[in-house]
């Protein structure tokens, strides 16, 4: 039942979807073997239980969502009063009855468990009366205040069991005796009081009177707070003369100060020794401190480490439970000798001093491939403890642990980028704790895809223009729709972007959301120009920065990704020439590529590359000596040629473009000449991708690093000279404490005065025999470049021409 639900009704079926509103309605209908589940909350009603179960099929009334017991807060369903009258075989669990209105009358085989009872200024928190029998109170909380008693068992009730419960009374404001006992047993033979923690401000803690024979008081912690003469003094256990027959008291711990631990048959005994000598009882009783302290690991008070309660109870006495007040199993403290009976290590009182171990760990990225773990281990008991970390990649680390709380700090670098499940386990001889955290590398790996056309304005409708096809207008933007086959969580796309037949000179900028002050490729009117573009987004925009319209063709070459299957790591190289088909080439590596012909070259195992495991390569491909207009398509060796192009050229033009291409199964790539005449090709290797190892990519917003045309830009680059450019950016360059090793740049030569080439390389190495960009006089040419970075954060640009040229350098990302 759940009175808070809008759908509740006392005339309904009492189901999960249509619960009863009142507890009483549900209780009135319950029969043998049935369970009344009550949602947590406060119900302004007094509940009376009048229906019985059977020994084989009791009626159970319980909190609906008991779940795991939260030691800091016990959930209850609260009622104004509870009466269990004239019934048998009933179990009630998780109720809170306040106001001194809880009574069990003429009831038999009734259990009240994990419940709470309290009373205000007078009365009794819980009363067992009218000849009730075999009533069990287990792991309950009973509290009384000022003039009130906590628990009263009376009027011929028999075999009542009070076990593993916490009872307290407060007489704040009380100025004179008498103070009622916290537990008052009057005329109730066979009462068992076992394993409880009882704190009273003063007065009698447990009283057995009026013929309560055959009772048992064992394994309890019995304490009074006001240990002097205030409010009449403090007494532990009082057993009247007519209640001593067959009554046993032993294995208790008393903390009553100057008060008497026992008043037995009218005689007060100031010490346990005199009591034992006179009565033969209490041979294992102790006096000592009953103080507790808060344990951060357990998150509740526990007996102090030196307390006499630890490992000293009789585990075999009637009413002793295997679980303590908080539902924890009994534990053997290895630092304390076992002084108890039975298994020997149960603690006295309701709360067991159990071992506890808790582990809290956070995982964060640290650089492109590394993760950092930080956390805390709490361990209640001392003793050797070891922490083992399974990093989720087949490797592990182990370290010894110092005193609790122990701060855990560990780093780990992964060979492969990705998301990992890291399991941290702490283990001692008495406890263990384990937790798993998700750790991910911040860098991104590259996944090449078969070149796929994702935009062609000549044929694709523009949804922002009513579905019409056509070029991008001047100073306008067109969105690139990425196919669903590309994962949603990619961090950057690699696109080959081609401007086709622009009406005016200008540029294209490919970007994510805010138009940057950078360009991706530059063009003259009427030409076809391509450039490889890396953009930090999954859904790119293309801006036409010219005064006229232009068609645009976009092919996707691959993507970078951080999670899931994160792809390949990158190894940058100083540029190495793999191919030069020109007859005058000193290497003479191949012949001119014929019209509509192709050339396959080996990549893996050449120029210092591994023979195995090279998944993709970064190339700079240049078309030279073209006799007719056409295009070049680069694709994995041994695979069908895709419907895409990597660079476009006109007759007599020298055109470069960067290419990232997956290698074929035999480690080769194929270059196709899509023109009606032969063409020479230059191929320079810039780096390669592997599944394991290599660097990780971190995209950045496009940023212009240099423009030699502007004031402070250094002016044009002189013939056959080198210009260093600082690509260093402290907030990004040292991202995660790991300096960047390579940078991705869009490099543009502007208005060169003579034909030539540009070579990009780290300025702390020798200039390689390779080119990144080729140009003719007066033409603006852009190309994507990936270069190593020198130790001081610079990249050099060599002007390999006999004239002057201006230079634009835009950064789009780093490799770490």
UniProtKB/TrEMBL annotation:
This is PKD domain-containing protein. InterPro entries: DUF1565, Ig-like_fold, Pectin_lyas_fold, Pectin_lyase_fold/virulence, PKD_dom, PKD_dom_sf, Polysaccharide_Lyase_9. It is found in: Secreted. Keywords: Secreted, Signal. It holds the Pfam family DUF1565. One of its GO terms (biological process) is carbohydrate metabolic process. The keyword Secreted applies. The lineage of its organism: Bacteria, Bacillati, Actinomycetota, Actinomycetes, Kitasatosporales. Gene3D superfamilies: Immunoglobulins, Single-stranded right-handed beta-helix, Pectin lyase-like. It comes from Kitasatospora gansuensis. It comes from the Bacteria. SUPFAM superfamilies: Pectin lyase-like, PKD domain. One of its GO terms (cellular component) is extracellular region. Residues 384-438 form the PKD domain. The keyword ATP-binding does not apply. GO terms for molecular function: carbon-oxygen lyase activity, acting on polysaccharides.
């Amino acid at each position: 039942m759940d009175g808070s639900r809008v759908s509740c009704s006392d005339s309904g079926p009492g189901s999960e979807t249509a619960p009863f509103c009142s507890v009483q309605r549900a209780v009135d209908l319950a029969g043998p073997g049935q369970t009344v589940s009550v949602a947590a909350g406060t119900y302004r009603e007094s509940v009376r239980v009048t229906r019985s179960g059977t020994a084989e099929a009791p009626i159970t009334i319980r909190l609906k969502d008991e779940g795991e017991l939260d030691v800091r807060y016990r959930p209850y369903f609260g009622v104004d009063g509870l009466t269990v009258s004239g019934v048998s075989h009933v179990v009630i669990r998780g109720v809170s009855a306040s106001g001194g209105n809880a009574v069990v009358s003429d009831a038999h085989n009734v259990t009240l468990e994990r419940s709470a009872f309290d009373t205000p200024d007078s009365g009794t928190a819980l009363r067992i009366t009218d000849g009730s029998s075999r009533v069990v109170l287990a792991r309950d909380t009973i509290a009384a205040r000022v003039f009130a008693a906590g628990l009263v068992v009376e009027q011929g009730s028999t075999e009542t069991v009070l076990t593993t419960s916490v009872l307290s009374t407060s007489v704040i404001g009380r100025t004179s005796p008498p103070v009622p006992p916290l537990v008052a047993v009057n005329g109730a033979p066979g009462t068992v009081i076992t394993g409880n923690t009882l704190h009273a401000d003063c007065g009698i803690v447990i009283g057995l009177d009026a013929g309560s024979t055959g009772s048992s008081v064992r394994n309890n912690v019995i304490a009074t707070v006001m240990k002097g003469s205030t409010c009449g003094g403090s007494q532990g256990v009082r057993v009247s003369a007519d209640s001593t027959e067959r009554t046993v008291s032993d294995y208790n711990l008393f903390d009553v100060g100057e008060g008497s631990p026992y008043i037995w048959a009218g005689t007060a005994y100031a010490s346990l020794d005199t009591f034992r000598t006179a009565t033969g009882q209490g041979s294992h009783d102790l006096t000592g401190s009953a103080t507790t302290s808060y344990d951060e690991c357990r998150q509740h008070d526990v007996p102090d480490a030196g307390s006499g309660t630890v490992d000293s109870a009789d585990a075999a006495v009637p009413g002793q439970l295997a679980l303590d007040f908080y539902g924890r199993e009994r534990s053997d403290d290895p630092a304390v000798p076992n002084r108890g009976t039975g298994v020997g290590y149960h603690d006295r009182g309701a709360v067991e001093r159990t071992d506890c171990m808790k582990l809290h760990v956070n995982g964060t990225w640290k650089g492109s491939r590394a993760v950092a773990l930080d956390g805390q281990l709490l361990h209640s008991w001392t003793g050797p403890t070891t922490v083992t970390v399974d990093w989720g990649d087949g490797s592990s680390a182990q370290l010894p642990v110092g005193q609790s709380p122990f701060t855990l700090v560990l780093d780990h670098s992964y060979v492969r980028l990705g998301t990992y499940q890291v399991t941290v386990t702490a283990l001692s001889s008495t406890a263990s704790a384990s937790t798993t955290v998700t750790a991910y590398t911040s860098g991104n790996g590259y996944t090449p895809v078969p070149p796929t056309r994702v935009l062609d304005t000549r044929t694709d409708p523009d949804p922002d223009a009513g579905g019409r096809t056509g070029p991008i207008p001047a100073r306008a933007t067109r969105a690139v729709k990425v196919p669903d086959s590309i994962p949603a969580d990619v961090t950057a796309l690699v696109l080959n972007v081609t401007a086709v037949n622009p009406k005016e000179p200008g540029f294209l900028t490919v970007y994510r959301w805010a138009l940057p002050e950078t360009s991706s490729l530059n063009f003259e009117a009427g030409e076809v120009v391509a450039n490889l573009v890396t953009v930090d987004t999954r859904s790119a925009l293309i801006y036409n920065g010219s005064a006229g319209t232009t068609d645009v063709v976009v092919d996707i070459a691959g993507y970078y990704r951080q999670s899931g299957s994160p792809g390949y790591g990158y190894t940058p190289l100083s540029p190495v020439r793999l191919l030069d088909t020109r007859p005058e080439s000193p290497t003479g590596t191949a012949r001119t590529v014929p019209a509509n012909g192709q050339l396959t070259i080996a990549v893996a195992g050449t120029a210092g590359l591994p023979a195995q495991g090279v998944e993709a390569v970064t190339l700079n491909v240049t078309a030279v000596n073209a006799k007719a207009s056409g295009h070049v398509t680069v694709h994995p060796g041994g695979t069908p040629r895709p419907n895409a192009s990597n660079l476009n050229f006109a007759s007599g033009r020298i055109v470069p473009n960067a290419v990232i291409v997956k290698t074929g199964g035999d480690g080769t790539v194929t270059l196709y000449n899509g023109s009606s005449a032969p063409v020479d090709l230059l191929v320079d290797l810039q780096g390669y991708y592997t599944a394991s190892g290599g660097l990780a990519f971190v995209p950045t917003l496009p940023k212009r690093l240099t423009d030699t045309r502007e004031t402070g830009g250094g002016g044009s680059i002189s013939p056959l000279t080198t210009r260093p450019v600082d690509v260093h950016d402290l907030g990004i360059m040292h991202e995660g404490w790991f300096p960047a090793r390579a940078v991705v740049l869009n490099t543009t030569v502007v208005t060169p005065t003579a034909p030539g080439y540009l070579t990009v390389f780290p300025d702390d190495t020798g200039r390689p025999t390779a080119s990144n960009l080729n140009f003719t006089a007066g033409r603006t040419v852009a190309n994507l470049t990936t270069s190593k970075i020198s130790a001081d954060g610079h990249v050099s640009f060599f002007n390999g021409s006999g004239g002057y040229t201006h230079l634009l350098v835009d950064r789009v990302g780093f490799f770490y």
